[in-house]
Amino acid sequence: MLESIVDLPVEKQIFYAVLGFSWTVYLWEAYLSYRQRKIYRTTTHVPPELGKIIDSETFQKSRLYQLDKSNFGFWSGLYSETEGTLILILGGIPFLWNIAGSVTARFGLGSEYEITQSLVFLTLATLFSAVTGLPWSLYNTFVIEEKHGFNQQTIGFFLKDAVKKFMVTQCILLPVTSLLLYIIKIGGDYFFIYAWLFTLAVTLVLVTIYADYIAPLFDKFTPLPEGELKTDIEALAKSISFPLTKVYVVEGSKRSSHSNAYFYGFFKNKRIVLFDTLLEDYSPLNKSGEPQTEQPESDESSAESKAKPKNKKQGCNNPEILAVLGHELGHWKLGHTVKNIVISQMNSFLCFSLFAVLIGRKELFVAFDFNDSQPTLIGLMIIFQFIFSPYNELLSFCLTVLSRRFEFQADAFARSMGKASELYSALIKLNKDNLGFPVADWLFSMWHYSHPPLLERLRALGNVKQD
């Protein structure tokens, strides 16, 4: 069989190599997920070493939640791989490109208007992806997340949110793509340098404006009220010279009861964002079922979300929140954010450089049924998505390993600030709130976990006594 493949034309060899590698990755991922599902099915009692940090009820809830998520991931992954294979085999990409050409032709635009055709193609492709992915997203949100008490959305809010996300994505994606294609076309021999610089500039602009102008289109951001917590956060930031300018609380509870925190901004203009579900004293999920002393500011928000009563308080107390922020600020102090940006941009430059070498190879286009034309956008898709896929898999694994190392270092930084005990209890609370399962197959964990498993993090923090 190998000899018959070698005897095929080079474009066929490329096509079958891409298809074969894609299924190899899928089968590998399916095998890893099978190993982890086996852990979920067989680990039905709290292991002795976890007995003091997690109760049996929470353990069972997290086990069933993660088992449902894993089963869902298997079927959605199988569908995605099958869909992608059929698109390639049936010539879905050139078919959609020709449809885009027909649309532009209706407006009197010929093949010389390649960038316009590329934008139509991109719009149709993202619309197809959004429509085919919608049933899976609905099932995940309104069956799995609903079943396990995380979903706070109504169908109407979900659909409106999906439309809004699609529109905002198009408003960013189409102008950026058109400029990138234009730069590649007029850039000459060194177009890859200009293309890389352009994508770097776009990345920095989006990171700068996202939280101020894009995120508020979807969620409500309010300044953290004056009080002990805000004062302590400002003192914590000042103690390590973090240039904090504002602290926001984001209304994450209208979508989900999952919690998070992050910081953003460049140079001397950094902000911290806390999800309301992270804050024990601010989370609406802790107040549902209690009498309301005030009317919420937004009737629309209260109508579209559906906070549910919870038996146990969600979120962390103030000292634990400071410990979590000590971990997050540790990433900044230790240069993890800058290192990740540098790695990302080195990778981007390398990919554009290799793209410059490969874009002239006609057989790459012929492999995907582009026999008479070599559109730049299609070249970007073929090379970045298909030809680079082995490299992308290796890079993803290396970044996962690096991320785990960074997480341990950030935990150690919080410990050095005298917050080991509070971070210890915060990690346990967050694991319970998010129904994280504390037992993992070693191979699945090594390949997938960008954050170390709970038990490993607690061991690294040391033997801190908890109440």
Amount of beta strand: under 5%
Whole-number radius of gyration?
A: 25 Å
Element-by-element helix/strand order: HHHHHHHEHEEEHHHHHHHHHH
**What separation lies between the terminal Cα atoms?**
64 Å
The strand count comes to: 4
Structural class: mainly alpha
Q: What percentage of residues falls in helices of 4 or more residues?
A: 55-70%
| Overall spatial form | globular
* Major sheet attributes: 4 strands, mixed
Low-confidence stretches: 289-305, 307-311
Oligomer designation: single chain
What's the total helix number?
Answer: 18
Strand order, sheet with most strands: 1-2-4-3
* Overall average residue pLDDT: 87
Region (Disordered): 286-315
Cofactor: Zn(2+)
Active site: 328, 411 (proton donor)
Transmembrane segments: 14-32, 86-107, 119-139, 166-184, 190-211, 341-360, 380-402
List descriptors.
single chain, 467 residues, mainly alpha, four-stranded mixed beta sheet, 18 helices, 4 strands, 67% helix, globular, metalloendopeptidase activity, protease
Task: Walk me through this protein's architecture.
The chain has 467 residues and is mainly alpha-helical. The chain has a domain at 97-151. Helices cover 67% and strands 4% of the residues. The chain is built from 18 helices and four strands. The protein has a four-stranded mixed beta sheet with strand order 1-2-4-3, sandwiched between helices. A hairpin with a 5-residue loop joins strand 3 and strand 4. Helix 4 packs across helix 5 (114-147). The longest helix has 34 residues, at 56-89. 25% of the residues are buried. Mean pLDDT is 87; it is low at 289-305 and 307-311.
